[in-house]
Input
Amino acid sequence: MDHAGHRDRLRKRYQAEGLGGFAAHEILELLLTYAIPRIDVNPVAHRLINHFGSLENVLEASVEELTHVEGIGEKAASFLSMLLPVFRAYEMEKQRPRMRLKNHGELLRYCRSLFVGVKNEQLYLLCFDAQMQLQATTLIATGTPSEVSVIPRQMMQALIRHNAVAAVMTHNHPSGSVRPSEEDLVLTRNIEVMLGSVGIRLNDHIIVAGEEDFSFFLNGLLNGNENEISYLSWNQDDFSRAADRQGIRTIPHGIKK
Output
């Protein structure tokens, strides 16, 4: 078989049609032409789909898991495992210039984008300046599918490094409910006190589980809710729509009525 000609036809087909008409194994085959030279990668693409069950699972697999499939070496495995982090970076970069904390919907979407395809719990810290512009998004910790350990000192170092005056914590529950655990509640209270002691405001802690999210601010679980918080400018109707989705029964003091 003319492997070079077949690869060229795949690429030209993509250039003409996009990926809309490609089967899952054909998408992988096209990708593998850039990572594995000279050989026929069609059987390798089929083995990946058969082993993991779907394109989604292939892209979410680790380098070690991918190398268990015949024909996938470390280079090809690294290439495939890199794709979802690249997509996440793209989403973050695309949303960052538009993100303003006055629009809580954009904040929630931004936080969800951080965890696309992530199987283990992770905690990010969003650092903001005095004008509430996002200065940095820092990965603080990565754990297991059910828990993540946080070192508060790392959070403080990140905030100081970026001259932050306000912060938003966000972490994911990849295999559980979006609702906060008792550990989440205790951690958030402790972090809020720690940051407050050096004049940094914790504006929110957002938990993400798939397409769902839970906001500590919207649920009145931050002490800052006792004061007027200017980083949200939703009106009553805006808040009611979000409240209905999250099952919130009370309106935090920071929401302008």
Remarks:
- The first strand starts at residue 122 and ends at 128.
- Residues 13 and 235 are 49 Å apart (CA to CA).
- The mean pLDDT is 82.
